[in-house]
Amino acid sequence: MRTALVGGGSSGIGHAIAERLAGAGDRVVITGRHADVLEAAAARLRGAAAEVHAVVSDMADPASAAAAMEEVEHRHGGLDVLVLNAGGPPPGGILDLDDTRWREASELLLLGPLRLARLAMPDMAKRGFGRVVFVTSTAVRQPQPDLAASVVLRSAVTAAAKLLSREFAASGVTVNCVAPGATSTGRRTQILTNRARAAHLGFDELDAQDLAHIPAGRAARPAEIAAAVAFLASDDAAYINGTVLTVDGGRTETI
Question: Is the pTM of this model over 0.85?
Answer without folding.
Answer: yes
